[in-house]
Design a protein that fits this description.
The structure is a homotetramer of 155-residue chains. The first copy, chain A, has 155 residues and is of the alpha+beta class. The first copy, chain A, has a single domain, classed as Hotdog Thioesterase (Thiol Ester Dehydrase, Chain A, Roll). Chain A is built from three helices and six strands. A six-stranded antiparallel sheet of chain A has the order 1-2-4-5-6-3. In chain A, a hairpin with a 2-residue loop joins β5 and β6. In chain A, α1 runs antiparallel to α3. The longest helix of chain A is centred in the middle third of the chain and has 18 residues. The radius of gyration of chain A is 15 Å and the shape is globular. The model of chain A has no long low-confidence stretch (mean pLDDT 95). At the A-B interface, α1, α2, α3 and β3 of A face α1, α2, α3 and β3 of B.
Chain lengths: 155, 155, 155, 155
């Protein structure tokens, strides 16, 4: 991945453990088989192996699943720059599908465009990979909100 | 559901069977447990019972799953007005999350705003329901493209 | 206009004067010739007579101008439900162009979908009108943020 | 500007003259004082000097004007890669405002993410500039449609 990543300084030195623990609590990620494959201050990579259960009517990866890993890539990119003890919620996202999703695995690369004290703006690009071939299948622009002093666990 | 639905005339008198067959080919819908609960010319309802496997880190329905049923509600609303023998693809969608997804079941109501010869613009609203209580949890605006004379099945 | 408008209770009894004063401070609205034609708790109408100076390369109303009046219709719909003494900013908006903008005048009707303590989600529909004919030319989904205790005037 | 620009091969060797002529027909650009400051295959730069007539209620550049130059930057980036003799229309765009627009001039840099035979997906970033200082004020994701064999002039 050669996407340009601005350098951000994390507020929380333990951001990586905090992000990984939150991702691990997402039962939906385990359900579809996605994992957090890469992580740094202000960026993430979410990886999903192809499974027939995740396809739409023509056999491609369902657009909703593409959005699901892209949304997570954006959300945890933003969460990595937030302070300890906060919670995060998705305000909105917008996704363009660029090509049909057909590969052996899919990778969503998320990065922060602008971190904010309350709102963060992020972007993710999703790729389908098969052997040496990588196809850019979607691009997402997403807004997230930080909730200070709110546990990131079920109430 | 009392959302105002403009009256559209379907081009294909057998649109309902065509939409139901296409929905049934979406393995991803069976995988998450969603079904096509209602259908008419230019509108659909997709229903999803709550399952813990579909939740995010705080126990709410994952935003990507919300997008997934909303995307489908939009797509099949548009597909219902398209001619027989065509295929459809999602160009893009944008979703605002309005409230945390927490209910016994979720309903996405999709409707066509403007049907077009190539591009259709649609909207969906997603609700969480628990007994008598219904919460509006998301609203989606989506663009779809009709591919004429293209089978809506795997190649 | 028969768009369904949910009934909202304004927090500020003087919301109408506050919204009108803010709109009047927007030099850009005077510049293009737009005015606030209608206003209630949670909704607005912005009206713009056609002018050749506002067109794009094919003689239609420039899409950016369509966005401009739609953005304002959304923003002031949200602002009408906010408390006195606050300021508002646009977080993001997404607009679909439905038809070329060609009319004697244009009307953007904005309404609040969900008012929030910090974030509000709104929608606007823009119409081109010529005599008896009205064409739906755009639909917008927009997020706004309330800044408490911040003057809505230049610093 | 150091944004990474993928290398695209234009279909029309005279794309630059074609884009400049189309931009020059946009009366709305002359009206606000914007000009096409840079252009290549798959990218553009639109520049706008600050004017008080273009401001909103707090004295910042109106968000609709930000969208207007961003929309144009996207549109002409896409148009540069299209064949001679076609026309273009904006399908939709989504813009996040990242910071208040306050500068001596504004620059919108647009680039093509994925050119398509019918639909193109683009992005623009808008900056406010004052002397040495540059602030990233908005980011836009936009879809455009090519209309083959359609004159790009008023009918």
């Amino acid at each position: 991945m050669n996407a340009p990543v601005p350098m951000f300084e994390p507020q929380d030195p333990d951001f990586a453990a905090r992000v990984r623990a939150s991702f691990a609590r997402q039962k939906a990620m385990a359900f579809i088989g996605a994992r957090l494959a890469g992580l740094g201050p202000g960026w993430t990579e979410v990886e999903l192996p192809h499974r027939d259960e995740l396809t739409q009517q023509k056999g491609y990866l369902h657009g909703g699943i593409v959005g699901m890993i892209g949304d997570n890539a954006c959300g945890y990119a933003a969460f990595s720059l937030m302070p300890a003890g906060c919670s995060i919620l998705t305000v909105e996202y917008k996704m363009n599908i660029l090509a049909p999703g057909l590969g052996l695995r899919y990778v969503a690369r998320g990065e922060v465009i602008r971190p904010g004290s309350r709102l963060s703006v992020t972007r993710a690009d999703v790729y389908a990979e098969s052997g040496d071939r990588r196809t850019h299948i979607a691009t997402i622009q997403e807004t997230l909100m930080m909730l200070p002093d709110t546990p990131d666990v079920p109430e």
